[in-house]
Amino acid sequence: MALIVSFEGLPNSGKSTAGRLLQEKLVKSGVKSIVLDADNFGDARIIRNVANKYRPGHFSRALLYWFLHFQQEDAIEKFRESQEVIIVDRFWGSVCAIDGSSDIPADILESILSYSTKPDLTFFIDVPLKVAIERKIRKSVLVNNHQMAKRIEKKYHKLAEAGDWVHIDGQRQAEEICESCFGIVNKKMDQAINYGKTPYCLTSVI
């Protein structure tokens, strides 16, 4: 049974880079692992283009992005037995942060989340909003909408604290971030072996 590791954080925080480098390091160390990015399934690009025609917080936009995340769920089930570590780039934590900062009714969001997979380990790649905007690695309507972006940033921090996410300083070098994540994943895997199961969460501040 694979260890499910998710990466969450603001757009341009470095989630994708951290996940990719971690996966490469795990593979080199002999650990079967895969990265599941919602943007790489089926018609994801078409769906994203349609979704981006709606303003952030619009219900139609949220529904389309939820569909992409449920494709991630399907992929998790597909690879759960064949992989040792499944790395999920932007998962339901991002849904909570983004849609939880909009006018989407809380009961609807809670209902959707009740069907979601809970990661065994979540890394919160934390960078100040100003840094995320200045990086401009990826065009994002979220960081360009400053008021909503501030709400999302605040929501991410609340979720990280409440969910015992592992806090990672996203302003560090990518290789340093990878090393930190690799060490924590190894520790998590050792716990799973020692206890015969995967514990749910690990609290750490880096």
Overview of the molecule:
The protein contains nine helices and five strands. It has 206 residues and is α/β, with parallel strands linked by helices. It has one domain (13-195): 3-Layer(aba) Sandwich (Rossmann fold), CATH 3.40.50.300. The protein starts with a strand and ends in an 11-residue tail after the last helix. It has a five-stranded parallel beta sheet, sandwiched between helices. It is globular, with a radius of gyration of 16 Å.
Summary tags:
206 residues; alpha/beta; Rossmann fold; five-stranded parallel sheet; 5 strands; disordered C terminus
Average pLDDT number: 87
Backbone CA Rg = 16 Å
Q: How far from one another are the termini?
A: 27 Å
- Which homologous superfamily in CATH is the superfamily? P-loop containing nucleotide triphosphate hydrolases
Strand content: 5-15%
Number of distinct beta strands: 5
Provide a count of the helices. 9
Question: SSE string, helix = H, strand = E?
Answer: EHEHHEHHEHHHEH
